[in-house]
Amino acid sequence: MNQTLHLAQALLPDGFADDVTLTIADGVITRIEAGVAATPDAERLPGLALPGMPNLHSHAFQRGMAGLSERRGASDDSFWTWREVMYRFLDRLDPDDVQAIAAQAFVEMLEGGFTALAEFHYLHHDKDGRAYVDIAAMAGAVAAAAQETGLGLTLLPVFYRFGNFGGTPSVHGQRRFINERDAYLSLIEASAAAIRPLPDARLGLAPHSLRAVALDDLDWLACLRPDGPLHIHVAEQMREVEDSLRITGRRPVELLMEHTTLDRRWCLIHATHLTEAERDGIARSGAVAGLCPITESSLGDGIFDGVRYRAAGGAFGIGSDSNIQIDAGAELRQLEYSQRLRDRGRALMADAGASTGAALWQAACVGGAQACGRAIGRLAPGCRADLVTLAADHPALLGKAGEIALDSAIFAANALPLRDVFVGGRRVVAEGRHLGREPVKTRFAATIRKLLG
Asked: Among the options 301, 321, 386, 420, which is catalytic?
């Protein structure tokens, strides 16, 4: 299928351009021309067009528990007490529930500027911890939600064996995650079949964390799919760092770098607590730092050293993680503001004289595309035609264009002022609303009422 889009103004790899025509074939951009009038067959898109943002880290089912963990407990609240709330919530979920919750989350992602997702999928088994007859029933639910909503998908089946460093046995709340190697191989095969009907879907792998796998599992996993992305949670919490030092004698990222070769396939999720050597080592390796600033703030993780990491040439992207708020602009704003609070400066994630919004958007698109293992994140020939447009008549954007408009969309709008969203050349959002929003919302509402009743 061939189509032509004419963009009033668009962010291309080398900056903003006016009157941009995209020629698209089978969902892929084949040609770009700037400074040309619209042809009669072109669909005209007003406003500011941007490459769609990849979401490099999500646990879709957690959208269903958003808001349930804000009551302070009797002792100090932390990530670890939040985790217990999460375990109790997922105890109730079946594949139909996961599909309904994921579809709602994916609609909100598309309405929030995300056009692709790397889903870090660790909820595998039935409520008693036994595998479903179809071991990838839960993965199939995620894939079905992506197909229904039109979100691009990289599925990351998670390998999870232990409860903590050193092979500590898992706890009851983790029973739905656990697989040994043979079962995980079956899960990968079934997951690949589950995503096959989706256009341009990708399968990667994810050791959950160094707490949850053996060190010799890392290279075993890397060899299973030699060209696929590899994601891992690492150094999110200080307790994790302290446990790693106590049990292994090494910090988590130090341990990871000693036992596998980091390269462009790897995405290190959070990587919050780093020494200078660890930080610069990740940057040199070509791996992506997977940052989830809203969730990291919610859970009290800490602040990633984005300024020094960026100066070292490090690649990064953003993810919605726990999905308590789903908005690409809000994640970028939170990332920049966290750096300002720590370093007591302004516009810290951009070069001198440059637009902070444009620097953040472009860097996160490039890093997110790498982490997803797909040709996305740029308006360029050979890339999927994933793009969003901003509404030029939004109060935050009035009278503005180019970099100033993008800065205003991220830092002066309550939410990203989306107008249209295309994924693989297919329109999925019009006037800021997903085209399939209502039936998804209705099913989600029924599911949540059942779960919380």
From this structure: 321
